Protein backbone atom coordinates (compact mmCIF):
# COMPACT_ATOMS: atom_id res chain seq x y z
CA UNK A 1 0.00 0.00 0.00
CA UNK A 2 1.21 3.50 -0.87
CA UNK A 3 1.21 5.97 2.01
CA UNK A 4 -0.68 8.91 0.54
CA UNK A 5 -0.04 11.04 3.61
CA UNK A 6 3.71 10.81 3.22
CA UNK A 7 6.01 13.82 3.03
CA UNK A 8 8.91 13.91 0.57
CA UNK A 9 9.43 13.76 -3.20
CA UNK A 10 6.03 13.16 -4.76
CA UNK A 11 5.11 10.53 -7.34
CA UNK A 12 5.06 13.05 -10.19
CA UNK A 13 8.72 13.87 -9.57
CA UNK A 14 9.48 10.15 -9.17
CA UNK A 15 7.93 9.56 -12.59
CA UNK A 16 10.01 12.41 -14.04
CA UNK A 17 13.21 10.90 -12.61
CA UNK A 18 12.40 7.64 -14.38
CA UNK A 19 11.66 9.13 -17.79
CA UNK A 20 15.21 8.72 -19.02
CA UNK A 21 14.90 5.00 -18.31
CA UNK A 22 11.52 4.90 -20.07
CA UNK A 23 13.00 6.61 -23.16
CA UNK A 24 15.73 3.95 -23.16
CA UNK A 25 13.10 1.19 -23.14
CA UNK A 26 13.10 0.15 -19.47
CA UNK A 27 10.09 -0.64 -17.29
CA UNK A 28 9.89 2.06 -14.59
CA UNK A 29 7.75 -0.08 -12.29
CA UNK A 30 10.32 -2.87 -12.35
CA UNK A 31 13.04 -0.37 -11.40
CA UNK A 32 10.92 0.84 -8.49
CA UNK A 33 10.40 -2.72 -7.28
CA UNK A 34 14.12 -3.43 -7.57
CA UNK A 35 14.74 -0.31 -5.46
CA UNK A 36 12.30 -1.65 -2.84
CA UNK A 37 9.84 1.16 -3.55
CA UNK A 38 6.11 0.59 -3.98
CA UNK A 39 5.37 1.03 -7.73
CA UNK A 40 2.08 2.66 -6.75
CA UNK A 41 3.99 5.89 -6.08
CA UNK A 42 4.72 6.27 -9.82
CA UNK A 43 2.89 9.36 -11.13
CA UNK A 44 0.84 9.70 -7.93
CA UNK A 45 0.79 13.33 -6.78
CA UNK A 46 -0.50 12.29 -3.35
CA UNK A 47 2.21 9.72 -2.63
CA UNK A 48 5.88 10.35 -1.90
CA UNK A 49 9.27 8.82 -1.13
CA UNK A 50 11.71 9.88 1.56
CA UNK A 51 15.38 10.80 1.16
CA UNK A 52 16.66 7.25 1.70
CA UNK A 53 14.29 5.86 -0.92
CA UNK A 54 15.48 8.57 -3.30
CA UNK A 55 19.07 7.33 -2.90
CA UNK A 56 17.96 3.77 -3.65
CA UNK A 57 15.98 4.91 -6.68
CA UNK A 58 18.79 6.96 -8.20
CA UNK A 59 21.31 4.18 -7.69
CA UNK A 60 18.94 1.59 -9.14
CA UNK A 61 18.32 3.68 -12.27
CA UNK A 62 22.05 4.22 -12.68
CA UNK A 63 22.94 0.54 -12.38
CA UNK A 64 20.00 -0.65 -14.50
CA UNK A 65 21.02 1.63 -17.36
CA UNK A 66 24.76 1.62 -16.57
CA UNK A 67 24.48 5.39 -16.85
CA UNK A 68 25.56 8.04 -14.38
CA UNK A 69 23.02 10.50 -15.82
CA UNK A 70 19.90 8.31 -15.55
CA UNK A 71 19.29 8.04 -19.30
CA UNK A 72 18.68 11.76 -19.77
CA UNK A 73 21.39 12.11 -22.44
CA UNK A 74 21.65 10.60 -25.91
CA UNK A 75 24.73 8.58 -24.93
CA UNK A 76 25.22 6.69 -21.68
CA UNK A 77 28.03 7.69 -19.33
CA UNK A 78 29.00 4.33 -17.86
CA UNK A 79 29.28 3.81 -14.11
CA UNK A 80 32.92 2.74 -14.49
CA UNK A 81 33.68 6.32 -15.53
CA UNK A 82 32.08 7.55 -12.32
CA UNK A 83 34.54 5.42 -10.37
CA UNK A 84 37.43 6.84 -12.37
CA UNK A 85 36.22 10.37 -11.73
CA UNK A 86 36.09 9.71 -7.99
CA UNK A 87 39.58 8.25 -8.05
CA UNK A 88 40.77 11.40 -9.80
CA UNK A 89 39.91 13.67 -6.89
CA UNK A 90 39.51 11.54 -3.75
CA UNK A 91 43.10 12.30 -2.78
CA UNK A 92 43.07 16.01 -3.58
CA UNK A 93 44.16 18.22 -0.71
CA UNK A 94 41.18 20.60 -0.63
CA UNK A 95 37.60 20.96 -1.79
CA UNK A 96 38.60 23.64 -4.32
CA UNK A 97 41.18 21.35 -5.92
CA UNK A 98 38.75 18.41 -5.98
CA UNK A 99 36.05 20.59 -7.55
CA UNK A 100 38.30 21.69 -10.40
CA UNK A 101 39.58 18.16 -11.03
CA UNK A 102 36.01 16.85 -11.02
CA UNK A 103 34.87 19.50 -13.50
CA UNK A 104 37.75 18.75 -15.88
CA UNK A 105 37.00 15.03 -15.72
CA UNK A 106 33.24 15.57 -16.14
CA UNK A 107 33.82 17.78 -19.17
CA UNK A 108 35.80 14.96 -20.78
CA UNK A 109 33.23 12.28 -19.88
CA UNK A 110 30.35 13.45 -22.05
CA UNK A 111 29.63 16.05 -24.73
CA UNK A 112 26.14 16.42 -23.21
CA UNK A 113 27.57 17.95 -20.03
CA UNK A 114 29.33 21.30 -19.94
CA UNK A 115 30.39 22.37 -16.43
CA UNK A 116 32.63 25.34 -15.81
CA UNK A 117 33.57 27.78 -13.05
CA UNK A 118 32.91 31.50 -12.98
CA UNK A 119 35.39 33.23 -10.70
CA UNK A 120 33.61 36.59 -10.91
CA UNK A 121 30.75 35.98 -8.54
CA UNK A 122 31.35 38.28 -5.58
CA UNK A 123 32.34 36.40 -2.41
CA UNK A 124 31.32 33.11 -3.99
CA UNK A 125 32.56 30.91 -6.80
CA UNK A 126 29.92 29.86 -9.32
CA UNK A 127 29.84 26.27 -10.59
CA UNK A 128 27.75 26.43 -13.77
CA UNK A 129 26.25 23.25 -15.23
CA UNK A 130 24.97 22.79 -18.79
CA UNK A 131 22.94 19.69 -19.61
CA UNK A 132 21.84 18.73 -23.15
CA UNK A 133 18.98 16.31 -22.48
CA UNK A 134 17.08 14.14 -24.96
CA UNK A 135 13.45 14.94 -25.94
CA UNK A 136 10.74 13.50 -23.74
CA UNK A 137 12.38 14.10 -20.34
CA UNK A 138 12.11 16.84 -17.72
CA UNK A 139 15.44 18.65 -17.76
CA UNK A 140 14.64 20.49 -14.52
CA UNK A 141 14.44 17.28 -12.48
CA UNK A 142 17.87 16.25 -13.77
CA UNK A 143 19.35 19.61 -12.74
CA UNK A 144 17.86 19.20 -9.27
CA UNK A 145 19.06 15.62 -8.69
CA UNK A 146 22.55 16.42 -9.98
CA UNK A 147 22.74 19.40 -7.61
CA UNK A 148 21.59 17.15 -4.77
CA UNK A 149 24.32 14.65 -5.65
CA UNK A 150 27.02 17.35 -5.89
CA UNK A 151 25.96 18.92 -2.60
CA UNK A 152 25.91 15.66 -0.67
CA UNK A 153 29.06 14.23 -2.23
CA UNK A 154 31.28 17.20 -1.43
CA UNK A 155 29.69 17.73 1.99
CA UNK A 156 30.56 14.10 2.74
CA UNK A 157 34.09 14.64 1.46
CA UNK A 158 34.80 17.64 3.71
CA UNK A 159 33.01 16.15 6.71
CA UNK A 160 30.41 18.92 7.09
CA UNK A 161 27.69 20.63 5.03
CA UNK A 162 28.88 22.89 2.24
CA UNK A 163 28.03 26.53 2.92
CA UNK A 164 26.28 27.22 -0.39
CA UNK A 165 25.72 30.91 -0.99
CA UNK A 166 23.08 30.48 -3.68
CA UNK A 167 21.45 28.07 -6.13
CA UNK A 168 20.39 29.26 -9.60
CA UNK A 169 18.10 27.22 -11.84
CA UNK A 170 16.69 27.99 -15.24
CA UNK A 171 13.39 26.32 -14.41
CA UNK A 172 10.49 27.64 -12.36
CA UNK A 173 9.90 26.72 -8.73
CA UNK A 174 8.44 23.19 -8.49
CA UNK A 175 5.21 22.88 -6.52
CA UNK A 176 4.07 19.61 -4.97
CA UNK A 177 0.58 18.80 -3.71
CA UNK A 178 2.03 17.76 -0.33
CA UNK A 179 3.82 21.10 0.08
CA UNK A 180 7.30 19.54 0.13
CA UNK A 181 10.04 21.98 -0.93
CA UNK A 182 12.67 19.91 -2.69
CA UNK A 183 15.14 22.83 -2.76
CA UNK A 184 15.02 23.42 1.01
CA UNK A 185 17.74 20.83 1.62
CA UNK A 186 20.37 23.18 0.18
CA UNK A 187 19.77 25.69 2.99
CA UNK A 188 20.54 28.74 0.83
CA UNK A 189 18.69 31.28 -1.36
CA UNK A 190 17.41 29.87 -4.66
CA UNK A 191 16.92 31.91 -7.85
CA UNK A 192 14.36 30.43 -10.23
CA UNK A 193 14.01 31.34 -13.93
CA UNK A 194 17.70 32.25 -13.85
CA UNK A 195 19.89 32.50 -16.99
CA UNK A 196 22.03 29.51 -15.91
CA UNK A 197 21.89 26.44 -13.68
CA UNK A 198 24.58 26.94 -11.06
CA UNK A 199 25.72 26.39 -7.49
CA UNK A 200 27.56 29.22 -5.77
CA UNK A 201 30.15 28.08 -3.22
CA UNK A 202 31.56 30.13 -0.37
CA UNK A 203 35.20 30.89 -1.13
CA UNK A 204 36.14 29.89 2.42
CA UNK A 205 35.00 26.34 1.64
CA UNK A 206 37.45 26.05 -1.24
CA UNK A 207 40.42 25.75 1.12
CA UNK A 208 38.78 23.19 3.41
CA UNK A 209 40.77 19.97 3.52
CA UNK A 210 39.13 16.76 2.39
CA UNK A 211 38.49 14.01 4.91
CA UNK A 212 40.52 10.97 3.78
CA UNK A 213 38.12 8.75 1.82
CA UNK A 214 38.32 5.71 -0.47
CA UNK A 215 36.13 4.07 -3.09
CA UNK A 216 35.12 1.53 -0.44
CA UNK A 217 34.04 4.39 1.84
CA UNK A 218 31.99 5.81 -1.04
CA UNK A 219 30.28 2.47 -1.67
CA UNK A 220 29.59 2.04 2.04
CA UNK A 221 28.12 5.54 2.20
CA UNK A 222 25.54 4.73 -0.46
CA UNK A 223 24.94 1.24 0.91
CA UNK A 224 23.90 2.91 4.18
CA UNK A 225 21.06 4.65 2.26
CA UNK A 226 21.68 8.16 3.66
CA UNK A 227 18.62 10.38 3.92
CA UNK A 228 19.16 13.10 1.33
CA UNK A 229 16.33 15.18 2.78
CA UNK A 230 17.58 15.17 6.38
CA UNK A 231 19.78 17.86 7.86
CA UNK A 232 23.35 16.92 7.05
CA UNK A 233 24.37 17.41 10.66
CA UNK A 234 22.29 14.34 11.47
CA UNK A 235 24.54 12.26 9.21
CA UNK A 236 27.75 13.49 10.84
CA UNK A 237 29.60 11.50 13.46
CA UNK A 238 29.81 12.84 17.00
CA UNK A 239 33.51 13.47 16.39
CA UNK A 240 32.70 15.65 13.36
CA UNK A 241 29.97 17.55 15.17
CA UNK A 242 32.12 18.09 18.27
CA UNK A 243 35.01 19.25 16.10
CA UNK A 244 32.78 21.73 14.23
CA UNK A 245 31.57 23.33 17.48
CA UNK A 246 35.06 23.48 18.98
CA UNK A 247 36.42 25.19 15.87
CA UNK A 248 33.64 27.80 16.07
CA UNK A 249 34.46 28.41 19.73
CA UNK A 250 38.19 28.61 19.03
CA UNK A 251 37.53 31.21 16.33
CA UNK A 252 35.79 33.21 19.07
CA UNK A 253 38.85 32.88 21.30
CA UNK A 254 37.56 30.14 23.61
CA UNK A 255 40.50 27.75 23.35
CA UNK A 256 39.63 25.36 26.17
CA UNK A 257 35.86 25.22 25.90
CA UNK A 258 34.42 22.92 28.58
CA UNK A 259 32.45 19.90 27.48
CA UNK A 260 29.33 21.40 29.07
CA UNK A 261 29.39 24.30 26.60
CA UNK A 262 29.94 22.03 23.57
CA UNK A 263 27.30 19.53 24.69
CA UNK A 264 24.77 22.35 25.09
CA UNK A 265 25.41 23.51 21.52
CA UNK A 266 24.96 19.95 20.30
CA UNK A 267 21.73 19.63 22.32
CA UNK A 268 22.99 16.71 24.34
CA UNK A 269 24.37 16.11 27.83
CA UNK A 270 28.08 16.02 28.70
CA UNK A 271 27.91 12.44 29.94
CA UNK A 272 26.08 11.34 26.81
CA UNK A 273 28.58 13.17 24.58
CA UNK A 274 31.49 11.43 26.30
CA UNK A 275 29.77 8.08 25.78
CA UNK A 276 28.99 8.70 22.11
CA UNK A 277 32.54 9.85 21.42
CA UNK A 278 33.93 6.80 23.20
CA UNK A 279 31.77 4.60 20.95
CA UNK A 280 33.67 6.15 18.02
CA UNK A 281 37.05 5.61 19.71
CA UNK A 282 37.43 9.32 20.51
CA UNK A 283 37.54 11.53 23.57
CA UNK A 284 36.49 15.14 24.00
CA UNK A 285 39.86 16.13 25.47
CA UNK A 286 41.79 14.51 22.59
CA UNK A 287 39.71 16.30 19.94
CA UNK A 288 40.09 19.68 21.65
CA UNK A 289 43.83 19.18 22.10
CA UNK A 290 44.33 17.96 18.53
CA UNK A 291 42.54 20.96 17.01
CA UNK A 292 44.67 23.40 18.98
CA UNK A 293 47.84 21.54 18.05
CA UNK A 294 46.94 21.50 14.35
CA UNK A 295 46.41 25.24 14.40
CA UNK A 296 49.70 25.79 16.23
CA UNK A 297 51.52 23.83 13.52
CA UNK A 298 49.73 25.83 10.82
CA UNK A 299 50.81 29.15 12.38
CA UNK A 300 54.41 27.95 12.55
CA UNK A 301 54.56 27.05 8.86
CA UNK A 302 52.17 29.57 7.27
CA UNK A 303 53.07 32.72 9.19
CA UNK A 304 56.15 34.65 10.23
CA UNK A 305 54.90 35.18 13.78
CA UNK A 306 57.46 34.52 16.51
CA UNK A 307 56.85 31.40 18.59
CA UNK A 308 55.93 33.49 21.62
CA UNK A 309 53.35 35.45 19.62
CA UNK A 310 51.80 32.22 18.31
CA UNK A 311 51.47 30.97 21.88
CA UNK A 312 49.63 34.15 22.88
CA UNK A 313 47.47 33.91 19.73
CA UNK A 314 46.38 30.42 20.82
CA UNK A 315 45.48 31.51 24.31
CA UNK A 316 48.62 30.55 26.23
CA UNK A 317 49.59 33.18 28.80
CA UNK A 318 53.09 31.77 29.31
CA UNK A 319 55.59 30.96 26.50
CA UNK A 320 56.83 27.92 28.39
CA UNK A 321 53.32 26.51 28.63
CA UNK A 322 52.87 26.73 24.84
CA UNK A 323 56.22 25.02 24.19
CA UNK A 324 55.45 22.19 26.61
CA UNK A 325 52.04 21.60 25.03
CA UNK A 326 53.46 21.75 21.52
CA UNK A 327 56.14 19.17 22.33
CA UNK A 328 53.38 16.84 23.56
CA UNK A 329 51.48 17.40 20.28
CA UNK A 330 54.30 17.22 17.76
CA UNK A 331 57.16 15.49 19.57
CA UNK A 332 59.49 18.47 19.09
CA UNK A 333 59.80 22.10 20.12
CA UNK A 334 57.95 24.76 18.06
CA UNK A 335 61.18 26.24 16.66
CA UNK A 336 62.42 22.78 15.64
CA UNK A 337 59.09 22.02 13.97
CA UNK A 338 59.28 25.22 11.94
CA UNK A 339 62.90 24.62 10.91
CA UNK A 340 62.19 21.01 9.93
CA UNK A 341 59.10 21.57 7.80
CA UNK A 342 59.18 25.15 6.49
CA UNK A 343 60.87 24.05 3.25
CA UNK A 344 58.25 21.36 2.55
CA UNK A 345 56.00 23.16 0.04
CA UNK A 346 53.13 20.67 0.37
CA UNK A 347 53.09 21.02 4.16
CA UNK A 348 53.23 24.81 3.91
CA UNK A 349 50.35 24.83 1.40
CA UNK A 350 48.26 22.59 3.64
CA UNK A 351 49.12 24.75 6.66
CA UNK A 352 48.10 27.91 4.78
CA UNK A 353 44.77 26.37 3.79
CA UNK A 354 44.12 25.22 7.36
CA UNK A 355 45.02 28.62 8.77
CA UNK A 356 42.70 30.40 6.34
CA UNK A 357 39.90 27.96 7.10
CA UNK A 358 40.21 28.19 10.90
CA UNK A 359 40.57 31.96 10.94
CA UNK A 360 37.72 32.40 8.44
CA UNK A 361 39.84 34.47 6.05
Characterization of the model:
With 361 residues, this protein is an alpha+beta fold. It is built from 16 helices and seven strands. The strands form two sheets. A five-stranded mixed β-sheet has the order 3-4-7-5-6, covered by helices on one side. Strands 1-2 form a two-stranded antiparallel ribbon. Helix 13 (307-313) crosses helix 14. The longest helix has 20 residues, at 139-158. The radius of gyration is 23 Å and the shape is elongated. The model has no long low-confidence stretch (mean pLDDT 88).
Number of helices: 16
What sequence of helices (H) and strands (E) makes up the elements? EHHHEHHHEEHEEEHHHHHHHHH
Strand element count? 7
The gyration radius over C-alpha positions equals: 23 Å
Distance between the termini: 53 Å
- Average pLDDT for all residues: 88
How many domains make up the 3D coordinates?
2
Unreliable residue runs: none
How is the largest sheet built, in terms of strand order? 3-4-7-5-6
Shape: elongated
Category from helices, strands and their pairing: alpha+beta
Roughly how much helix do the residues carry, as a percent range? 40-55%
Strand content: 5-15%
The biggest beta sheet is recorded as: 5 strands, mixed
What would you say about this model in short?
The chain is α+β, with helices and mostly antiparallel strands and 361 residues long.
Brief descriptors of the model:
two-stranded antiparallel sheet, 5-stranded mixed β-sheet, 7 strands, 361 residues, alpha+beta, 2 domains, 16 helices, single chain, 50% helix, Arc Repressor Mutant, subunit A
